[in-house]
Amino acid sequence: xxxxxxxxxxxxxxxxxxxxxxxxxxxxxxxxxxxxxxxxxxxxxxxxxxxxxxxxxxxxxxxxxxxxxxxxxxxxxxxxxxxxxxxxxxxxxxxxxxxxxxxxxxxxxxxxxxxxxxxxxxxxxxxxxxxxxxxxxxxxxxxxxx
Length: 146
What we know:
Layout: E1 20-24, E2 33-34, E3 51-54, H1 57-66, E4 74-80, E5 85-86, E6 102-105, E7 109-114, H2 123-138
Antiparallel strand pairs: 1-4, 2-7, 3-6, 4-7, 5-6
């Protein structure tokens, strides 16, 4: 029996790069970069200091469903180009331990693919979540990401 070769370059195994999800209504292509500086979908909706990604499909679905704009909801596979950290709005304040595996960064994300098929939340759930986000905004509950 021949030994399986797990190398593609003769220098040893190639490590798997963690891929994350990013939900949005923006139309992007493989190779594009998602960067800070655009209007945020949440908080005070000013130029974003951070961009967001998640290791769970469900959190990315929420990102796509709650994103502002009229475009089609999309979920991209992304790779960070720099350091990422826990998103404090979805970890420390609401969900200790980061069960949604939600992160933020000041460094761009590279689009490496798009999730072609996914099941969104019910229209009722989305409406309730949008109302909750709007109530928080009206009450002056600001994002730690602003």
